[in-house]
């Protein structure tokens, strides 16, 4: 028979054994004492904080037949069978695998049967947020007015996914993430009872790694017990199993950051990775150290961090030497590494980039960012649909309007030429074409940028259409769902700095405008254009989406066939550009 896991052996069996949830324990004890136990409870909070254990203790307490004032007594027959998992009056349901309406209908039929032995039947529905909408609707009436012998306890880690109609029928109790102090207390108790030899430093690292979860901490301790056999569990063994770096290595890296010693810092990062440390874990440890320095530098007290005396002395020195603005910038840089580590071709590359940028002076770092073609524009002027475009010798002047034609802006930045230029306007419909003589042009044979170059100051409808596939490929590494949603769209127009895309169904519009997807697209647009852009989505009919390019083509042809334009071309002029405004009319 397989050995029972440590987190199951050390599950809390009484209210006094529940650690770190005093507000929940006090509420339930008072309800039991006064005979005011609710018919439905909602236990919500992070994983491993005691929700299911508390539900089982409540089930024992309401059926306990012991003579003690504090329930449960864990000595009577009903308490023992519940502890051993043999009680027929405690029904635990996993909503992740029983989430449909058929399972809830079956539950509704069975709740009417009386308890087998105790006074109450207790239904514990774990991960209740996984139920379907239909299942929630089927549960509502029973949850609001259950038989007098039934108590419901709903457990979830995501209360925001539960309908408001269900929330209003339950008493909600929020379980808090367990503090580091309470985790260490529980681990020490287990080690004493299990006669496990372990150093205090190892216990602290296990507790930190558990991030507020009793179950994670106990599972990790169980794994270390098997890994090391009968020998003592040391800090080095925990670090070897977790792939974490020593605190000394993290502290040394921060010293290199303060000294702006790029060479030493890069060597240290590579040594730590080559020795087997997990890059994401190492980055998390660096962030934790920098966070502690920020607390020391801004609050001035050491009560907010949990380190040894020697480590505290070293960290106070680092906090004094670290410039506050540089410290904040460094935290932001390493905080952005987490999302890049998954796709990096070399595991240490995002760490190295963050370290190098953190050691640069602020002015030089800003210069590096502005010169990066992925984040800033490399050329000036509005992009055009023409295959070749002349270089501009100067950027647009402040007084220049954004509606000026590209040829006119280029003309203003050049010296006087003998070439003849004419602006020809048709009457009646506001159509406009630019004509230019075919005289020798000194700029005609210059090398020109590719059509996909990034704009500066403003983007156009043509640029959006030309760079649509590029936008999709840039969004994909950040959020594949956002990229897939964009593929169901088509570029419509650009209103100033607002990029408008069209979809066929309101469902897709809602998904694209979800903040998690919209922020990613706007971030990529910022990287491609160098200017802040907003994303807007409109619902278009299928016919409107398919006919729009055809309509634009017909209107362009009508402009070129205009008699005034033809007369200008017969005089030796040539059409430089034809622009359509966002409504499809010529401009």
Question: Can you tell me about this structure?
Answer:
The protein has four domains: 6-174, Rossmann fold (3-Layer(aba) Sandwich), CATH 3.40.50.300; 180-242, Helicase, Ruva Protein, domain 3 (Orthogonal Bundle); 247-371, Up-down Bundle (Zinc Finger, Delta Prime, domain 3), CATH 1.20.272.10; 381-394 and 402-587, GMP Synthetase, Chain A, domain 3 (2-Layer Sandwich). The chain has 587 residues and is an alpha/beta fold. The relative contact order is 0.06. It has a five-stranded parallel β-sheet, with helices on one face. It has a three-stranded antiparallel β-sheet with strand order 6-7-11, with helices on one face. The protein contains 27 helices and eleven strands. Strand 6 (421-425) and strand 7 form a beta hairpin. The protein is 49% helix and 10% strand.
